[in-house]
Amino acid sequence: MATELHLNYFNIPARGELTRLLCAYGDLPLSETRYSFREYFATKAYLDLPFGQVPTLHVDGKVFAQSIAIARYVAKRVGLYPGDALLALAADSVVDAISDVYSEVCPVVYAKMDADMRAKKLAHVNQHVLPTALAALERRLVGAYFAGEALSFADIYLLDLFDNVVAGFPGQITVSTQAYPKLQALVAALRKSDKLRTYYASKFMFTSRSISKSFVSVAQREGVGATVRRSIGHPMLRRLDPFLMLDEFHVQLPGGFPDHPHRGFETITYLLPHSPGTMLHEDFCGHRGELAPGDLQWIFGSICPSRSR
């Protein structure tokens, strides 16, 4: 079974683009949730953030964080991380150096600040941070690539730096790359890659989807010993066709739900893997099913009253 990857990040390049580029170059499927800043801060309290920030990468349901760690994992998956320890050190050192540039640039171009303060910080980036970093990278590029004779994720990160920092903020980032011919040549070669050209073409067709409403569902008592949090079907979200309800419920033994009809709709019940018990669902026509932790049950409808416990 193929490993499923899902990236959560803002709808900007910044700390998420290296992972996107690596997946594109390596033909590794990647699904995404992209947030506007407003959407992210409105929902941050409910997100699974191991270190309190994005990006996060979901790998078969497990959540991991830190942008460079994520990119390094993906690079290994697509063959763009050196197998030799010394070449890996060379690639990692370049990646960390470029990451340091992002740490300097991102707060200046994205954070809210008054015009005078931004101008002062941009001057520091344009006159010191970027020229110093680009000159150091030019010196480190002694062959075709940063880590020996093979392409690595360090080279892809240079492309990201050129396209999304140096050329990504016209009028703010004003550094010329003419003084760095080896870096220019490497970036030009990477831009000719069919896989990356396809990615860039699709990138500008990406349409973000906004969160139209967010609210906290309220716990309520139902049945015997059952606590239910209802999102769909809640007064704040009464209609979301074709769904009638979305419930998260906790049941204490002995307890359950009383007789109730299932006519005209279908139910899907998933028992979380860490649940301490099982769930029995039966109707008065003799049908029954017991769910163990991790099980999913789909009931296609019943004309008979049902009970759950």
From TrEMBL:
<feature type="domain" description="GST N-terminal">
    <location>
        <begin position="3"/>
        <end position="82"/>
    </location>
</feature>
<dbReference type="InterPro" id="IPR004046">
    <property type="entry name" value="GST_C"/>
</dbReference>
<dbReference type="InterPro" id="IPR011051">
    <property type="entry name" value="RmlC_Cupin_sf"/>
</dbReference>
<dbReference type="InterPro" id="IPR003829">
    <property type="entry name" value="Pirin_N_dom"/>
</dbReference>
<protein>
    <recommendedName>
        <fullName>Glutathione S-transferase</fullName>
    </recommendedName>
</protein>
<dbReference type="InterPro" id="IPR012093">
    <property type="entry name" value="Pirin"/>
</dbReference>
<dbReference type="InterPro" id="IPR014710">
    <property type="entry name" value="RmlC-like_jellyroll"/>
</dbReference>
<comment type="similarity">
    <text>Belongs to the pirin family.</text>
</comment>
<dbReference type="Pfam" id="PF02798">
    <property type="entry name" value="GST_N"/>
</dbReference>
<dbReference type="InterPro" id="IPR040079">
    <property type="entry name" value="Glutathione_S-Trfase"/>
</dbReference>
<feature type="domain" description="GST C-terminal">
    <location>
        <begin position="84"/>
        <end position="214"/>
    </location>
</feature>
<dbReference type="InterPro" id="IPR010987">
    <property type="entry name" value="Glutathione-S-Trfase_C-like"/>
</dbReference>
<dbReference type="InterPro" id="IPR036282">
    <property type="entry name" value="Glutathione-S-Trfase_C_sf"/>
</dbReference>
<dbReference type="Pfam" id="PF02678">
    <property type="entry name" value="Pirin"/>
</dbReference>
<dbReference type="Pfam" id="PF14497">
    <property type="entry name" value="GST_C_3"/>
</dbReference>
<dbReference type="InterPro" id="IPR036249">
    <property type="entry name" value="Thioredoxin-like_sf"/>
</dbReference>
<dbReference type="InterPro" id="IPR004045">
    <property type="entry name" value="Glutathione_S-Trfase_N"/>
</dbReference>
